[in-house]
């Protein structure tokens, strides 16, 4: 878990710099947070810089100081959101005392944060190539971290020897499926109950 610990230290330093930054940088972060909320709820394809400026009660110039074009603003907001999901996962994982709990602590923020994203937002990402590439890179990084946690569990004798990458792929696919409303409706359970059931099945199997 060495790489994960180094990354978490970098994340904490980044948060400290953001929290202790200048008034201008704090204003920038506040605007990015507000834009993130708008994009997650409404998508971003139909949003204009004029419209954003009016809703955020700032000038267009202020927004263009954050990024030079609407596309750049959108990409910055999306990458910021994805980076926070990864950071939350790493912090949660490193707060656990064993690889079993680290696995689910790591993936849970990816599910809970995605639940805030509207269908329109996710559709807009699919149709905007830079954001789609950012999402694919995000998934690749999540896969690498999850694989690292699994390999750590194998090396410590907590997991039996298995194909760590394949296990990570299957687990993320299951988690993503649970995050879809039709899956929960068909099963007749809520998200937390479904997540706990998956946790039990993965770690304990189904054989008596």
Automatic annotation (TrEMBL):
<dbReference type="InterPro" id="IPR001647">
    <property type="entry name" value="HTH_TetR"/>
</dbReference>
<keyword id="KW-0805">Transcription regulation</keyword>
<protein>
    <submittedName>
        <fullName>Transcriptional regulator, TetR family protein</fullName>
    </submittedName>
</protein>
<feature type="DNA-binding region" description="H-T-H motif">
    <location>
        <begin position="48"/>
        <end position="67"/>
    </location>
</feature>
<keyword id="KW-0804">Transcription</keyword>
<dbReference type="InterPro" id="IPR036271">
    <property type="entry name" value="Tet_transcr_reg_TetR-rel_C_sf"/>
</dbReference>
<dbReference type="GO" id="GO:0000976">
    <property type="term" value="F:transcription cis-regulatory region binding"/>
</dbReference>
<feature type="domain" description="HTH tetR-type">
    <location>
        <begin position="25"/>
        <end position="85"/>
    </location>
</feature>
<dbReference type="Pfam" id="PF00440">
    <property type="entry name" value="TetR_N"/>
</dbReference>
<dbReference type="InterPro" id="IPR050109">
    <property type="entry name" value="HTH-type_TetR-like_transc_reg"/>
</dbReference>
<keyword id="KW-0238">DNA-binding</keyword>
<dbReference type="InterPro" id="IPR009057">
    <property type="entry name" value="Homeodomain-like_sf"/>
</dbReference>
<dbReference type="GO" id="GO:0003700">
    <property type="term" value="F:DNA-binding transcription factor activity"/>
</dbReference>
